């Protein structure tokens, strides 16, 4: 028996076999068409996800013209020059050091000298920038081209001067002044050794101690009259900025008991804005002359017509008072007047003589420096020189003389006999009382319990 096998047919890719049944061929063709359609024609869901139709479009032509993401464009508003520049502005702050000039600071800020000269030429206020003080702060604000847009000078924590470039490229200046908060403060002390020690222990600054001594300088000689057991009570202003204390204001009211006698003073600002100290009944605390030409110092030699001279060892009149003080200590004119002599001699060293009206002359000897010239008018407590040891002097001190009608008088006692300055005029007494009585009442309220405590502690 023979084994018959059907011949094997080779099928080429892309061609149907010759003997493929017609029904099968039709079925295969239809399946191929469906597969092609499934691959290349996306379903409606896929199409919708790929390109969503805007709500207001209705035709196929409009859909084709739309981008995939529609971002509406709105016209951009014009930006002013100053605002546009602000977008690219940079600021740099520099502190003025010893020896710095404005040119040095511009170089450190990398700003051209031309910008500096344009600023300095903008007015008299800008020219003051040529005189900078160490510790002041300059803030430069420049644009991307290195052009100066603003310069701010911070003089202290309260004051700032700003120079700002305007639309015409000119610099305009304005002053920004901050006002600190002021609150009254109270201190009191019992003197055991000196006013300075007692004041410092009570928490007073040196400047407040000196201010208090100045208030009573016509009544109390703080180099001679102070005794153990003297006491004081003082009310003054404390100044705060952003909750931090930045300093003290003036004394508002003060009471000082010296050798059993009490002196009271209160600050009054008159209708012209001038501030001075008065007794509670309106009498001026200031006499024509203050008691001493220096702040609190030590008397090394009193007025003595029969004194033994320390250099020549012979009895010669000492027609003044010697105040021992460190070299360079400021010396004040004890009253208003005119300088009638300012020079140097072998005996007196550097000296200054001042005439006060027709009857009075004061003399200041052995100065290390003279600060005034002959013919110059001076005010009470104006600095006229500094303590030295020029001429016949064994050490740094001031020799002070007081002459009345050409005769030497004791400087420590003569001032008490001289008239005071003008008191509050009667036309201002109502205003004076309204302003000062509340201050005196506050001082009295503080004073009672505080002084009682001082007595208990001692």
From TrEMBL:
- Where in the cell is the protein located? Cell envelope
What transmembrane ranges does the database entry give?
21-41
- Name the cofactor(s) required for activity, per the record: Zn(2+)
Residue span(s) of domain M23ase beta-sheet core:
317-411
- What keywords does the record list, in alphabetical order? Hydrolase, Membrane, Metal-binding, Metalloprotease, Protease, Transmembrane, Transmembrane helix, Zinc
Note whether Metal-binding occurs among the keywords: yes
Sequence ranges assigned to domain Csd3-like second N-terminal in this UniProt record? 189-305
Question: Which Gene3D superfamilies does the UniProt record give?
Answer: 3.10.450.350, Glucose Permease (Domain IIA)
Q: Which InterPro entries match?
A: Cell_wall_metabolism_enzyme, Csd3_N2, Dup_hybrid_motif, LysM_Opacity-associatedA, M23ase_b-sheet_dom
- The chain positions of domain Opacity-associated protein A LysM-like read 93-172
Top-rank taxon, per record: Bacteria
- Write down a Pfam family by its short name: Csd3_N2
State whether keyword Zinc applies. yes
What's the protein called, per UniProt?
Answer: Peptidoglycan DD-metalloendopeptidase family protein
Annotated organism of origin: Microbulbifer echini
């Amino acid at each position: 028996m023979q084994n018959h096998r059907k011949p094997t047919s080779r099928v080429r890719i892309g061609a149907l076999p010759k003997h493929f049944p017609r029904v099968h061929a039709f079925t295969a063709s239809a399946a191929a068409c469906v597969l092609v359609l499934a691959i290349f024609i996306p379903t409606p869901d896929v199409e919708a996800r790929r390109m969503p139709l805007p709500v207001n479009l209705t035709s196929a032509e409009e859909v084709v013209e739309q981008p995939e993401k529609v971002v509406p464009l709105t016209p951009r508003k014009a930006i002013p020059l100053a605002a546009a520049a602000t977008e690219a502005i940079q600021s740099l702050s520099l502190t003025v050091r010893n020896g710095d000039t404005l040119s040095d600071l511009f170089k450190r800020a990398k700003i051209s000298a031309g910008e500096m000269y344009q600023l300095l030429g903008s007015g008299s206020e800008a020219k003051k920038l040529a005189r900078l003080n160490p510790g002041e702060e300059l803030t430069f604000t420049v644009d991307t081209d290195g052009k100066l847009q603003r310069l701010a000078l911070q003089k202290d924590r309260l004051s700032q001067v700003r120079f700002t470039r305007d639309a015409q490229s000119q610099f305009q200046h304005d002053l920004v002044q901050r006002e600190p908060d002021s609150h009254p403060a109270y201190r009191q002390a019992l003197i055991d050794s000196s006013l300075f020690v007692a004041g410092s222990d009570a928490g007073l600054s040196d400047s407040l101690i000196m201010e208090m001594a100045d208030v009573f300088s016509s009544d109390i000689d703080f180099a001679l009259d102070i005794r153990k057991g003297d006491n004081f009570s003082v009310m003054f202003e404390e100044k705060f900025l952003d909750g931090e204390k930045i300093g003290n204001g003036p004394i508002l009211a003060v009471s000082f008991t010296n050798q059993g006698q009490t002196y009271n003073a209160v600050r009054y600002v008159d209708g012209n804005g001038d501030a001075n100290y008065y007794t509670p009944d309106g009498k001026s605390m200031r006499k024509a002359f203050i008691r001493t030409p220096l702040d609190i110092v030590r008397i090394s030699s009193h007025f003595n017509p029969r004194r033994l001279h320390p250099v020549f060892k012979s009895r010669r009149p000492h027609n003044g008072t010697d105040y021992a003080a460190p070299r360079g200590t400021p010396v004040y004119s004890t009253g208003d007047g005119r300088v009638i002599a300012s020079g140097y001699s072998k005996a007196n060293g550097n000296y200054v003589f001042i005439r006060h009206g027709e009857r009075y002359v004061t003399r200041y000897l052995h100065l290390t420096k003279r600060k005034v010239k002959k013919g110059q008018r001076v005010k009470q407590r104006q600095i006229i020189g500094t303590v030295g040891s020029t001429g016949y002097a064994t050490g740094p001190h001031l020799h002070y003389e007081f002459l009345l009608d050409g005769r030497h008088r004791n400087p420590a006692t003569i001032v008490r006999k001289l008239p005071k300055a003008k008191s509050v005029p009667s036309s201002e007494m109502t205003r004076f009382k309204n302003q000062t009585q509340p201050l005196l009442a506050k001082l009295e309220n503080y004073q009672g319990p505080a002084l009682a405590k001082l007595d208990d502690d001692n």
